[in-house]
TrEMBL record:
Localization (cell): Membrane
Full protein name: Rhodopsin domain-containing protein
Organism: Rhypophila decipiens
Keywords attached to this entry: Membrane, Transmembrane, Transmembrane helix
Family that this chain belongs to: Belongs to the SAT4 family.
GO cellular component terms given for this protein: membrane
Membrane topology type: Multi-pass membrane protein
Segments forming domain Rhodopsin: 29-261
Stretches that traverse the bilayer: 12-33, 45-69, 89-112, 124-145, 175-193, 205-225, 237-257
């Protein structure tokens, strides 16, 4: 078999190969825009950079795993190859919450830079930031210790090993993350009312932030994908995770591009 014989693996591979250069380009343009605006590179820029690095780490491991699968499913892979895939997948899971954390922190720092003069908005920005931090810590610790002992994740022959139910893990992981996405979009739409700009510009900016809410919708699509993709659910989840990370990085980079067109 070959990767091209497996649509879900081919789709996931194509997504990784497309997303990787896109996020790098978005990051480069962000730094150029920052310099052109005569603004010092700051925490919000470096947070966006770390979000990009996390996305690339996820994709490098995703591509490697798909190449090892080579169009086959779990039942057709030699045990040593399967172990390598599961070890890579275990590390890979940690990159997603890191990407979400750094991308959203970058956006929240932008919010704070523009809107923190309003104490009510500042408190909401801090509140969402704290919620995102707590979610990230909980997600990473849960993913790290999702199996007991830890190495049962990639070695199912360990006697007495057990893992957290995949459905419970995915639901508990995605719903809070998506809720934070929706809260950030709602806050942005409320805060935009205080900015002095033409109505057409206001609608464009509002539309952009609302589009960022699709990253939250993807969380629910991932839950649905788990029930419909069968043995290839991890590959399909990787594809949707990539789309989520791409949107997050675009949302924290594109608002800075104004200076590129002035």
């Amino acid at each position: 078999m070959a990767i091209s014989d497996n649509p879900s693996q081919m789709g996931s591979l194509a997504m990784s190969l497309v997303v990787s250069p896109l996020v790098v380009a978005a990051m480069i343009l962000r730094f150029i825009a920052t310099r052109k605006a005569a603004r010092r590179v700051g925490a919000e820029d470096w947070s966006a950079f770390l979000a990009t690095v996390s996305c690339l780490g996820f994709n490098v491991l995703s591509i490697w795993c798909i190449c090892l699968f080579d169009g086959r499913d779990f039942t057709q892979i030699p045990l040593d190859t399967l172990t390598s895939i599961l070890k890579a997948g275990y590390i890979m899971t940690q990159f997603f919450p890191l990407n979400q954390f750094f991308a959203k922190v970058s956006i929240l720092l932008l919010y704070h830079r523009i809107f923190s003069v309003n104490k009510f908005y500042a408190r909401w920005i801090w509140g969402i930031g704290i919620a995102q931090t707590l979610w990230t810590l909980a997600a990473m610790l849960t993913l790290f210790f999702q199996c007991q002992p830890v190495h049962f994740y990639w070695d199912k022959l360990v006697p007495g090993g057990k893992c957290i139910d995949e459905v419970a893990l995915l639901v508990g992981f995605e719903i809070p993350n998506s809720s934070i996405d929706f809260a950030m979009v709602a806050l942005a739409l409320v805060m935009l009312r205080d900015l002095k700009m033409r109505q057409a510009t206001r609608w464009k900016v509002a539309g952009f932030f609302a589009a960022g809410g699709f990253a939250g919708i993807i969380g629910f699509l991932k839950i649905a994908a788990h029930f419909t993709a069968g043995q290839m659910s991890n590959t399909v989840l990787s594809l949707w995770g990539n789309a989520q990370m791409l949107l997050s990085i675009l949302c924290c980079c594109v608002p800075i591009y104004n200076s590129l067109f002035s």
